Amino acid sequence: QVQLVESGGGLVQPGGSLRLSCAASGSIFSTYAMGWYRQAPGKQRELVAVIFPDGSTNYADSVKGRFTISRGNAKNTVYLQMNSLKPEDSSVYYCYARIVNIAGLETYWGQGTQVTVSS
Fold first, then answer.
1. What SS3 state is found at 107?
2. What's the rounded Cα separation, in Å, for the pair 35 and 25?
3. Mind listing the pLDDT tens digit for each residue in 11-20?
4. Quick one: how many helices (H) and strands (E) in the chain?
């Protein structure tokens, strides 16, 4: 079993910053990628950012230059630093990880954390 635990969501004013954290634990042989998706009410889930084992990253165009994804010193942790937040960034943010375990390569999801950007 693999669990992803997220933290760091909340309410922030436009222009403000938040930092999301995600830690994966359990039966993990290796991690292929970790990242964040978000889903607003009535919209499809969209990729926000992903980081690969070699440190390379991908970002949604809408967050480039404002959000930064990074790995923590602790194994299997990932952070999303969100700056210059806009109301349209309001969403539930989900951590995900592509993990190799005894069952092979599988995708796991966190429970989601709400980010609300409003004055």
1. strand
2. 15
3. 999 999 999 9
4. 0, 11
